[in-house]
Amino acid sequence: MTSTSTVPPRATDEKRANKLLGGVALPVGILGLLIVGSLLSEQFLTTRNLTNVVINMSIVGIIVVGMTFVFIVRGLADLSVPAMVGIGALLALGLQPALGSVLAALVGVLAASLAGLINGLLIGYARLNPVITTLATGTIVLGVAQAAVGGVIVYGNDPELQAFLTGRLIGVPVIVLIFLAVALGGHLLLSRTTFGRWVYATGSNPEAARASAIPLQFTKGAAFWMTATLSGFSGVLLGLTLQTARPGVGAGYEFDAITAVVVGGVSLLGGFGSMPRALGGLLLVTLLSNIMVLNGIPTESQGLVMGSLIAAAVALDVYLRRRGGAS
């Protein structure tokens, strides 16, 4: 009696999905946008415009790093991002006169991190719905931020720090260098550490991960804590570079981050994706947005394009995962 080993259908299709979404479609899409953008606008391939593109994607990119962990761990999405960005920016500027720029910025990050810890405990350990929980937490945090500043615009008073953050080191914008450092750290954490393996196992097969003694509650909670902390850090950088902030300064950042991660092929069903893939999706989305702005596409139409892009990416992900045997 003989037996042969076969590759599970799900594993085979996941490899095909990986090749399609990351190895082929994403680079081709980015290249195609570069060609289309250059044909539609003479300004597109200028150094000034491409520098602005990279700077604009850096603030969102820091949030994308955290959101990638949330998606892979099967946490759906973190909708508290706008509030965390807002509280980071407001505290970083509002506390400058009393604490100084560095301590005020640290308080802004810590406040968002504390809110993220609450998210993590409620989602990871109390097992509450991530979407409802983060939406509620974000609403509360934003309300606290609005009460703290009286619902008005806050202005900074540190032009030297603003000049540093908007300046360049070794010819590269400082904000971009900070983003690259965060992205590299997130990539290494996800791909080279035990925690990264826990993240994939938790999102791919929670029951098998639990049987393997992987701390599911801690892993899922940590993903949400990380996203909130990075969102607060992003808000601090945003406030310090603009030297102005209002309670709604983070509005829309959660949509931008989710769009980038989904378009990058990180699975909404968990257990699949990578940091380079998510950041590739961010680059594609940022280039597409830039092309539409340069060509005077109305804001409403831009939203329609981005929404359609998300729907197509999610539909493709669900289709490929179901073919592979995912429920």
Could you explain the architecture of this structure?
With 327 residues, this protein is mainly α. It has a domain at 47-250 and 267-272. Helix content is 76%, strand content 2%. The protein is built from 14 helices and four strands. The chain has helices at residues 9-40, 47-72, 81-94, 96-99, 101-125, 130-149, 159-165, 174-192, 194-204, 206-211, 216-242, 253-263, 275-294, 299-323; strands at residues 154-155, 168-169, 172-173, 244-245. The strands form two sheets. Strands 1-4 form a two-stranded antiparallel sheet. A hairpin with a 2-residue loop joins strand 2 (168-169) and strand 3. Helix 2 packs antiparallel against helix 11. The longest helix is centred in the first third of the chain and has 32 residues, at 9-40. The radius of gyration is 20 Å and the shape is globular. It starts with 8 loop residues before the first helix and ends with a helix.
Keywords for this entry:
single chain, about 325 residues, mainly alpha, two-stranded antiparallel ribbon, two-stranded antiparallel sheet, about 0% strand
CA gyration radius, whole angstroms:
20 Å
Listing every helix as H and every strand as E from the N terminus to the C terminus, the arrangement reads: HHHHHHEHEEHHHHEHHH
Q: Which class do the helix and strand fractions yield? A: mainly alpha
> What's the overall geometry?
globular
Q: How is the biggest beta sheet arranged?
A: 2 strands, antiparallel
What's the arrangement of strands in the largest beta sheet? 1-4
Low-confidence stretches: 1-8
What gap, in angstroms, lies between the N and C termini?
Answer: 34 Å
What percentage of the residues does DSSP assign to strands (E)? under 5%
Instruction: Give the proportion of residues in helices.
Output: over 70%
Number of discrete helical segments? 14
Per DSSP E runs of 2 or more residues, the count of β-strands stands at 4
* Mean pLDDT across every amino acid position: 88
